[in-house]
Request: fold
Amino acid sequence: MSTNSAAQAQAAAQKSARRLPPELNIFLVLIGIALVYEILGWIFVGQSFLMNPQRLTIIILQVSVIGIIAVGVTQVIITGGIDLSSGSVVGMTAMFTASLAQASTWPRALYPALTDMPVIVPVALGIGVGLLAGFINGQLIAKTKIPPFIATLGMMVSARGISKWYTKGQPVSGLTEQFNFIGTGIWPVVIFLVVAVIFHIALRYTRYGKFTYAIGANVQAARVSGINVESHLVKVYAIAGALAGLAGVVTAARAQTAQAGMGVMYELDAIAATVIGGTSLAGGVGRITGTVIGTVILGVMTSGFTFLRVDAFYQEIVKGIIIVAAVVVDVYRQKKRKT
Amino acid sequence: MGENGAGKSTLMKILAGIYTPDQGEVLLKGQKIRLQSPLDALENGIAMIHQELNLMPFMTVAENIWIRREPKNRFGFVDHGEMHRKTAALFKRLNIVMDPETQVRDLSVANRQMVEIAKAVSYESDVLIMDEPTSALTEREVEHLFTIIRDLRAQGIGIVYITHKMNELFEIADEFSVFRDGKYIGTHASIDVTRDDIIRMMVGREITQMFPKEEVPIGDVVLSVKNLTLKGVFHDVSFDVRAGEILGLAGLVGSGRSNVAETIFGVTPATSGSIEINGKPVTIDSPNTAIRHRMAFLTEDRKDTGCLLILDILENMQIAVLQDKFVKNGFVAEGELTKVCEEMSRKLRVKTPNLHERIENLSGGNQQKVLIGRWLLTHPRILILDEPTRGIDVGAKAEIHRFVTELARDGVAVIMISSEMPEVLGMSDRVMVMHEGRVTGILDRAEATQVKVMELAAQ
Reply:
């Protein structure tokens, strides 16, 4: 009798817990961090952190490139994998895309015959190059069964090499007005949000999404259930690559130039945003909404440090600690679930 | 001796200090002992060679044998020369020809077994426990092992030898004990008894459990397997299953039953042989193809190959049917599918507050029902069940038996692998028995008895 009522109470507790969206926790963390800055702001700087629309816009603008990458990385991590190549892919696609986005007025165009192209051409090239890099990642992982960590580590190194080789280290500048327009105003944010909405829907309501979670939850069971695990993984990594490519396009357009060193360490920020957003590195768990909030948390943190005039060195130290803390919380949560 | 799950290995693990007993005592040389750990057992002179080998593949043979007891030189470093000499001496004593400096991962299974034995002997134990040491050995290697065992016996070492193989028993045992369903049945001198006596001791239980077996009209052959072979695992497996028929698949662990199921379902495609469905030859190279031919496969290991543990009941149930149904332009028909899953879980009586419960929070029986539901949603015409009621409480077990019977009545061809003799005999129309990767017989329901099945399974 007593065990029965205890079980009922537990079931009721679980039921009520489920009504709250899982993102609520991280959203509260975001609010918490913002409030801390608000208070510290009044104490040390004598102004409000939050009541400054311009600052809030800049925060979102700065994180939108990371956010676009993180949407792809989230899907990879849900399958139980990892993608270390996205930062380098950003650099590589920025170079390729910019080389077809140069204006004829620019005297040192890389391909003088291919200047003033319609904006769709460089954009398609950028996304295509990213897609190809992701496709190669996926093929390596599916066919040779090497760990995703190694496959994407190789791509990380090689893609960076390609971006340097492409122009022998020279930046690509003199981009067309239409191309640069992609990176101006609110457009990066719009692109980020559109991408997030598309893949939020894909993960939750399509077969693609269901299979992605199933593979992450138990790859053997997924295979026995008829899922072609190999081809699905190729799809997921290719999508992640294409999104890194899109991020490369946006990066080049924002900077109005492309350099081989663009996107360095972006993969780590994207992974951090994903993990802070509640996606489990063990696979099978994670949502795009969480990743969006995680991305904003990263942005708020950086912006807040600058606002409080904290030294950049300290920023990195604290950022590292917060990333580790997020994973510790994840591990703790999983342990609690098991007992 | 005893069937799978009779409790032999568990008892030996108690002797080796791996488990501690709830009750009872162990006497060693007349002294009561209570072992706390495997190390404790070793120090008391009891060594065990496990069924699954416990060697470190990237270390040499010598390092494996003397681990934790490495001879040291005066600087406290490991004295490799001395270790090599000691190993060579040990091998000489046991008539083993092997280089002590080989890495274990380069050894054959038989040689690893020899290393395990040498390691156990090196503890100068008085009692040596061997758990099915010959399961991976060829005939010649077995002969060598037996020579070593006889030598050890002559040196005054007591040996406990677990085996499924009747002829081994008569060849090396002085005395044998039989276990059944966790109980001690009896001990006899091996010269006093015949094979049949032992089999009777192993299976001599009354079948009291009731099975909801129904006589249903048996239809045409649905699945026909001819000379199916997975090299090195099983050979020349041929059988037919008809619509409405339940084909039981019996055999001891390691006889290749589950491997045959996995091969038919495309998890490990066959190296030769053919599969026909409804008279048409088919090539099944992946579970995906198998599902398209309307096959379903409830795997043996719920946790490893069945459940998506961290996902909910709904997601677990719908994953197989999503291959070709309830999807329009990539989008899942969520509402419709949820309704179908709810219906299925009601029909299978899955006990849960709602379908959004994570499957890991369910009992084994309810998890199994969800997985059965996963396959029933695909409307299979061939259903392979591998140990469908293992580790499940009696109530859920009876329910699962009832579902299987109903499916047969609906004309599904069922292959049911089971280590539980009463289940196989109670549910099957025919029983196919396997032994060491070969089919040793197919019995009709009328002629299938515990003794007959065990004879074919233990050979």
User: Anything to note?
Assistant: Chain B touches chain A at residues 265, 267, 286-288, 290-291, 297, 299, 304-311, 315, 318-320, 322-323, 327, 330-332, 334, 353-354, 356-357, 360, 374 (CB under 8 Å). The longest helix of chain B spans residues 139-154. The mean pLDDT of chain B is 88. Chain B is about 35% helix and 20% strand.
